[in-house]
Amino acid sequence: MATSGVSIAEELRTALDGPWRAVRERARALLDDDRLYGDPSLDLKAARARVLEQMRLVATFDWVDSGFRHPDGTPGDAGAVVTALETLAYTDLSLWVKSGVQWGLFGGAVENLGTERHRTYLDELIPLRLLGCFAMTETGHGSDVANLETTATYDPATREFVVHSPTPSARKDYIGGAAEHARMAAVFAQLITGGESKGVHCFLVPIRDEAGGDLTGVTTSDCGYKGGLPGVDNGRILFDQVRIPRENLLNRYADVAEDGSYSSDIENPSRRFFTTLGTLVRGRVSVGGAAAAAARVGLSIAVRYAEQRRQFADPDTGQETVLLDYRSHQRRLLPLVARSYALAFAQNDLVRRMHLVQTGQDTDPRAQRALENRAAGLKVAQTRFATAAIQECREACGGAGYLTENRLVTLKADTDVFTTFEGDNVVLTQLVAKDLLTAYADEVRDLDALGWV
Ligand SMILES: Cc1cc2nc3c(=O)[nH]c(=O)nc-3n(C[C@H](O)[C@H](O)[C@H](O)COP(=O)(O)OP(=O)(O)OC[C@H]3O[C@@H](n4cnc5c(N)ncnc54)[C@H](O)[C@@H]3O)c2cc1C
Asked: Is residue 188 within 6 Å of ligand 1 at its C-beta?
């Protein structure tokens, strides 16, 4: 017991809960509901239907709405919604990913890359009247987003963009929601106007009718069974000269006038591209947080099991020994617990920084760049940690760890791909390294001999 009668566990929980403690408390209470947990025995079709139903329940929680900009223009509570979403990862990761796609990626693209004229879409997508997807990756290009092949060519005669997949490798691939549920896609494509390519921009493209059939010119298909996340309907999309209104360009950073003239406040195309991607940093922050949360679920299962499971009698007492009394078992699990605490503190700090930047409280231009680097680095650390820690937890529970009802195998399967989506870990590490080395070069470039010393 700590002083003043508050238990160490309570003090630890307060410290780990971080700045949005009340949000976590409320989320924990709302999520204490059997309807929100996964059922690993379901087939693909049933698992997807169940997750969609679960999302409808989550949509009634007030924190979904609170993350978005309010109609009067005041920013949403970015920190609160990312924290609540992290808590959702304790339930079922298919539900977490599908929710992240709808409100985080699709909703995030509309809110952060769009302008007032796109507000109506937010009003539809928040309560799930409009289901969407985030179509960036293509069969030919995943990590190399700048070289996507899908085109959106402006036609001034009709004031429309023509969205097209010019090659088989331009097919959108792995897209969450594209196999079954999404009616609209936020499509990343090369914008072409006046015969000139202006780089990757994002467009809202309707893909399905109300009955779920592909719209004219759109061909969707299903990625089928995956290594995990059975409740997420990942799919593919091909576009054959699909026409969308000019206004469907998400035009926060660039616009095309009716006559086809292009304008942007950011002149440098490369800076424009990285600003566009940087705006979507919330997704990466959330993926890292969810992976770490999943690792905490695994660790709490393994530690609790180790406190009760007994193997081999103590020769002095004749009593069988609990696993956690073995030093080797402590060495396997306790450093992982300590590391999971460290990552939780780091995540809380990252979310706090993100909140300050995204709510306009930190306007230092260097803060956004630093945030992107931290988000990338921490996403790598957390997802790698989750993969390793959950495997150790599985082994630490012996055969019981291998039974699906004990969750560890599902956690393992579902978190596996977290190292790949929202930025492949190796590529992200290279990006962070490049930025740090560039910053270092800037610092030392003009130093004379004395400066070097
Ligand atoms: C389940 C799932 C859900 C997804 N959901 C979505 C979604 O909703 N929307 C969406 O747009 N995308 C989605 N994706 C796609 C995901 O973002 C991409 O898979 C990811 O960006 C990696 O791209 P890639 O698969 O083409 O791999 P690649 O980029 O081809 O990488 C393959 C390997 O090559 C390595 N590599 C690549 N480039 C380099 C380099 N320069 N130097 C060294 N090594 C390199 C990588 O480290 C990796 O190991 C999803 C993917 C999956 C599996």
From this structure: no
Mutate to test the pocket of ligand 1, among 138, 143, 220, 232 (most ligand atoms within 8 A of CB): 143
Could you tell me which CATH class the domain 132-267 is placed in? Answer: mainly beta
Q: 62: pLDDT confidence band, cut at 50, 70 and 90?
A: confident
Task: Summarize pLDDT for 426-448 with one digit per residue, the tens.
Answer: 999 999 999 999 989 988 988 99
Helix (H, G, I), strand (E, B) or coil at 164: strand
CB contact at 8 A, 201 and 189: yes
* Multiple choice CATH, 280-442, 1.20.950.20, 1.10.3720.10, 1.20.140.10, 3.10.300.10: 1.20.140.10
Catalytically active residues, by annotation: 422
- Output the residue whose Cα is nearest ligand 1's atom 26: 142
Ligand 1 atom nearest residue 136's Cα: 11
Q: Residue 1 has what pLDDT?
A: 46
Nearest protein CA to atom 2 of ligand 1, as residue: 174
For residue 281, report the distance from its CA to the centre of ligand 1, in Å.
17
Ligand 1 pocket member 417 (CB < 6 A)? yes
User: Which tokens in the block code for residue 85?
Assistant: 């979403």
Q: Smallest Cα–Cα separation from 66: which of 49, 52, 85, 43? A: 85
Helical (H) or strand (E) element with 98: helix 93-99
Two tokens, residue 305? 């099991």
Per-residue pLDDT at 365 = 83
